[in-house]
Amino acid sequence: MLDAVHVAAYVAAAVLLLHVGSGIWTRRAERPVASMSLVVIVAGAAWWSLADAVIATGVDGPVSGIAAAAAFPAIGAIVAAFLCLARSASSTDWVPTRRLLAMLAVEPLVVTVLVATNPLHQQFYGGPGAATLSTPNEWQHGPLFWVHTAYSYGLVVTALVLVALGWWRSPGVFGRQFRSLLVASLAPILVVVVDLVGKAGDFGDPTPLGLAVTAVVLHHSIRRQDLIGLAPIARQALFERVSDLVVAISPRGQVIDANPAAQALWHDATRGVGGSLAGQPANEILRALRAEPADLSMAAVLDGDDGAAVDITIDVAGTRADLEIRASRLTNRRGHSIGWVLVGRDVTEVNARNRQLLSQLDLIEGLHLDLAEQASRDPLTHLHNRRHGMEWLAPSLAGTAAGDVVCVLMIDVDLFKLVNDRYGHVVGDAVLVAMSRRLLKTMPADALIARWGGDEFVVALPATDASVGAACAEELRALCESEALTDRGLNVRWTLSVGVAASPESGRTAPELLEAADLALYAAKVAGRNRVCRHEPGVPVPSEPGRPDTSTSASDPAR
């Protein structure tokens, strides 16, 4: 009855192990080395458990002895696979070399040969039945068995150290993965120790059952912690493969390590004569790279704000390259400084794109200003238009302090309609263009000159009173009266009527001041045209016969 229980236990353990192994096998592509190591472990454990099941049946003859001997290749494979699993657990890119696999295969093969030939030398097992491969439960351990045990436990201890270190160093979920792996490893080890010291009783070999417990823990880790799919990336691999420049500097200011990207840049910048970057004094690096600004020192970079960016330009084989460097202080677990790490990024292309973008933005801004300027200009005379004049005049008057004055001239070409009727609109346009040139010639540089509409022009003179404004208007009027315009063989003459109004006596807002200048212009027209009239507050504007005494617009046809 007891033998049947033993057999059932071993078979159940084998089935459980194979079930876990089949699940791992289906996911082997996600993490090949770790997955195949786990598959070898659970398959070897299932083979070992089935061999013990044969022994537990108590079958007579050499069958049970052959089963006992057949378990040793599985044991050797389990130990070697456990070492590979422990090594690959902390790195996704570790792959055992062929040489390592060959070395790990030597001991299991030698043990298999020794066990198979044990009836001849009995150095692996001795005692009753050892010479005939029968009654394996009565065999006694020989010296070669203890050599095999010492070797196997040496590998197991090495693997456990790797797992423990991984648990200590890995954060979060990765640490929990290593902890589960450590717990899974301890179950068979404990039962083996119990068996070796003779405390297993009549049960036989309990190790496969301990490995079944290992399978349960592994199954939990795979399901809950994604032991296969979620794996840490080796820091060294990251260090070597990152495209940014990474340089480690000791507290004494000497380069102690550099990734391939930094070493490649150093090689190119020094034209291959700089040797290895490791061992170089940090203070000499910037000088050797001919970095700009030339007065920048490595000490200033390292002693700056932690992680602050420093922009430098270096010479790389005759080509200037822009680098963005960030220095961060390295500390140990106790917070003591152990050096610095420099991270550099080549931003040459980024800066070139940024410069191109800024150039395009400047172009767009220039076009925007050109469009805005065109929108504020009269297309014929290229003077400012009425909209711009109002936008300029209103805030100018609003911003004047007490005592400041602004003078406005409202200018109209006398009898301009007759010019158009007599000479045509082309000549009329030429007169307006000539008027704009004469305005620019006679008015102060800070004056606002705008075409207000038709043959009307407005000039705003900042910091100018009415008398000075009237003098400017008189100079313009006299110029137009004395000089003719020659266009298409025609000599065209015209005169001007000008109304002058100044703030604050004639108005404090743009509409008030423009209305006052318009009234003065009307007065000049009524008085006979070709003259300058100043607005006199409180003085009624004279009316033409039959016309009401009211203000009027400068665009009145009578003008």
Summarize the structure.
The protein is an alpha+beta fold and 559 residues long.
Tell the overall outline.
rod-shaped
Straight-line distance between termini: 134 Å
**Widest sheet, order of strands:** 4-3-7-6-5
Low-confidence stretches: 545-559
**Count of extended strands:** 14
- Oligomer status: single chain
- What is the number of helices? 18
Look at the helices and sheets and give the structural class: alpha+beta
Strand coverage percent:
5-15%
Cα radius of gyration in angstroms = 50 Å
The main pleated sheet reads as: 5 strands, antiparallel
Provide the residue-averaged pLDDT.
84
Proportion of helical residues: 40-55%
